[in-house]
TrEMBL record:
The keyword ATP-binding applies. This is Helicase. Keywords: ATP-binding, Helicase, Hydrolase, Nucleotide-binding. It holds the Pfam family AAA_19. The lineage of its organism: Bacteria, Bacillati, Actinomycetota, Actinomycetes, Propionibacteriales. It comes from Aeromicrobium chenweiae.
Length: 703
């Protein structure tokens, strides 16, 4: 029998089993759908119990239906032929037949672990491991690994060159895909690490750190669903581009309840997509910001009155700037600014009453004084102007004016100038989001309506709800700081986090377990020791489980050899992985005149697009991004489904079949972390890499 005929017969046999699994999946989906309908009907019972029962039934049934639908594509991906003759099928979720017998083992179940852990050296009772390549519900290919040839039956068919190497040649598209069928042993160990504490996953580019971390999130939800689903799982990545790239991975594994946010979206209600220039970004990210923000939060509101005069009976009562400052300090010493809001009126009233000396006033007593002054619009207006409730975003807008007088030497002249310039857009950057979050915690929340303090004059509660002009502001946080916590925090590209970003994430993971993914050689943060201290504080002494992934599955050896030379300049002793494949395609390097730069970039991208089936990226220094977007607009539109134009930071975590790097020297020069950024950019390419520049200082240095 020919190899082609043998493979076709094996595919047909596997298709028969796959069809049985899908029939059962469809039956389960119908049951879940009927439970949704039944649950909705129970809402018509007409009593509170019926509504509660409806909500619970609809929620659980809808969640199950979503998981079944999400796992439909490529549901069955593996089969184990065991030494005892058992065949064990592995899939994205578990499926049982009508008699509750197992048809498909969930990849996260203990029974599926040997699918990833068995090797030819330690087969663990597995004779043959088979990966089924499927398109929707159709088996289109098979790849086998014969792990125990001594115990293989004479008629056992072995097909293909191995699933992993086959998957490495697949064209990239605009989304990351699950690698659940091709997880390797060292990756599986990281996925199944203990849930408690912090699991760190390190290794060079292309080792699968991100996708392993996402599979770990799915694994944790499977092993302790009540804890992680009720407490929430937060996945944080470097950019919205990256989050769009990975958004399909967890749903494809049957998990639809995870919160995915870029660093610019961690704070509910805020969405930031732009980066500040390097000097401003480094200053905003520094832990030096904490004391400055505390001073800014305590500063008087812009335009706040500095004195108050009130005529009462025979007395003229005054509060000058010095007295008001003393009252301000007293209020802030015992509470956050917004929590002290309700106490401010009584503190002012007390200070004014102590000045009362006239007989008529004293005769009426303190109670009469309080009643008079707290119903006087002049006093009401003064209090609202002197101690208004403060939104973090409003304080953030005042920071350019406060940075010089309140930083107390923490920032040098260059940093102060860069910081002032960075606020000119009146729109938060990615680096501003942690500052606004810090202010949320420093300021505190406003008291809820009716949160009266018995020591306050009751008339003054009108201050808390006095009508104000409503202003639409898309940058206001819509979530209470009490609701920020999660049960698990997964942070990717962790080497890039600034101290302020670590503080922001630390507040969301105080009681959480963590998965931390990173590689210091790819860091864009210029001060690693400061960031390491903030990381330690954020983890609060949690036990750590460290894993290092050692094999580069993404880049060809030719591409990675060039990138490794850049890494050696970027950091001492970089963590270099072993590239497992060669393509015979060496990176191309072009040095051209400025007048030829754009045409050469276009020609290089056209050539790569013609040679690969998947996606291609043109990566440029930030300063050239806008001009190139305009100069290549027609070309980008023509290939919108396959071609991206990005700056170096936005390539974090992504991969493309081909990459054209524009002005590598511009990338190395744009910040103190420029060489590390260039290392990241070069390692985004899986098959073809071309550099185009008007200078070649970078290549001379690594020669």
């Amino acid at each position: 029998m020919s190899a082609d005929n043998a493979e076709q017969r094996e595919i047909e046999a596997e298709q028969s089993y796959v069809d049985t699994v899908y029939e059962r999946l469809d039956a389960s989906a119908k049951v879940a759908q009927s439970l949704v309908v039944e649950g909705m009907a129970r809402g018509h019972v007409g009593n509170e119990g019926g509504l509660v029962e409806r909500d619970a039934m609809v929620y659980q049934a809808s969640k199950r239906l979503s998981a079944l639908n999400a796992a439909h594509d490529g549901l069955v991906f593996g089969r184990l032929n065991m030494l005892d003759g058992e065949s064990r099928y592995i899939g994205r979720i578990g499926v049982r037949d009508a008699d509750r017998e197992i048809l498909l083992v969930d990849w996260r179940a203990p029974a599926a672990a040997i699918f990833y852990q068995a090797t030819a050296q330690e087969p663990a009772g597995v004779v043959r491991r088979r990966v089924l390549r499927c398109s929707n519900d159709q088996v289109i290919g098979i790849e086998d690994d014969l792990l125990d040839s001594d115990h293989a039956p004479d008629d056992m068919v072995v097909i293909g060159e191995g699933a992993l190497l086959a998957s490495l040649t697949r064209a990239r598209d605009s989304s990351m895909h699950s690698v659940v069928a091709t997880i390797q042993k060292e990756q599986d160990e990281a996925i199944r690490a203990p849930a408690r504490g912090a699991t760190t996953i390190g290794g060079g580019p292309g080792t699968g750190k991100t996708v392993v971390a996402l599979h770990r999130a799915a694994y944790l939800l499977y092993t302790d669903r009540r804890r992680f689903e009720s407490g929430g799982v937060l996945v944080v990545g470097p950019s919205s581009v990256f989050m769009s790239y990975i958004e399909r991975v967890l749903p494809s594994l049957g998990e639809t309840s995870v919160t995915l946010r870029s660093l610019g979206e961690v704070v509910d209600g805020l969405r930031a997509a732009r980066h500040d220039e390097p000097v401003a970004a480094a200053a905003k990210g520094s832990s030096r910001m904490v004391k400055f923000l505390s001073r800014a939060a305590a500063a008087p509101a812009p335009g706040a009155p500095t004195s108050f005069r009130y005529f009462y009976k025979d007395d003229v009562l005054r509060l000058d700037a010095q007295q008001l400052e003393r009252i301000r300090r007293q209020l802030l010493s015992g509470a956050r600014r917004n929590r002290a809001y309700a106490k401010a009126p009584s503190a002012l009233v007390d200070a004014l009453w102590r000045q009362v000396r006239g007989d008529r006033a004293l005769e009426k007593g303190e109670e009469g004084f309080v009643e008079t002054i707290t119903t006087d619009d002049r006093f009401v207006d003064f209090v609202e102007e002197w101690w208004p409730p403060v939104e973090p975003i409003d304080v953030w807008r005042t920071l350019p004016d406060l940075i010089e007088p309140l930083s107390h030497g923490a920032f040098n002249a260059k940093e102060i100038a860069a910081l002032k310039q960075s606020w000119t857009l009146d729109e938060p950057s990615i680096q501003d989001v942690p500052l606004i979050d810090e202010l949320r915690y420093i300021l505190g929340e406003l008291p809820e309506s009716g949160d009266d303090d018995d020591d306050n004059p009751k008339q003054l509660m009108s201050f808390e709800r006095r009508e104000r002009e409503e202003r639409v502001d898309r940058f206001r946080s819509t979530q209470s700081i009490e609701d920020d916590g999660f049960a698990h925090v997964l942070v990717d590209e962790a080497q890039d986090l600034s101290p302020m970003q670590w503080r922001m994430l630390g507040r969301r993971g105080r009681h959480a377990s963590w998965t931390i993914v990173g590689d210091q050689a790819q860091s864009s943060w210029p001060y690693p020791q400061e960031s390491a201290a903030a990381r330690t504080s954020a983890l609060e002494g949690k036990p750590e489980h460290a894993f290092r992934l050692s094999t580069n599955y993404r880049n060809s050896a030719e591409i990675y050899e060039l990138a490794a030379k850049v890494a050696a300049v970027a950091v001492p002793d970089p963590d270099l992985a072993d590239a497992v494949r060669r393509t015979g395609e060496s990176p191309q390097q072009h040095v051209v005149a400025e007048s030829e730069l754009v045409s050469t970039v276009r020609r290089s991208a056209e050539e790569i697009l013609g040679r690969v089936d998947g996606t291609v990226a043109i990566v440029t220094p930030r300063a050239r991004l806008s001009p190139l977007t305009e100069q290549l607009s027609d070309f980008l539109a023509e290939h919108a489904d396959r071609l991206r134009l990005l700056d170096g930071l936005d390539t974090k975590g992504l991969e493309f079949d081909g990459v054209v790097v524009v002005e590598p020297d511009g990338i190395t020069d744009e910040s103190s972390a420029g060489w590390r950024t260039l290392y990241v950019v070069l390692t985004r390419a899986t098959q073809l890499l071309t550099t185009v520049g008007t200078t070649d200082r970078w290549s001379t240095r690594i020669a």
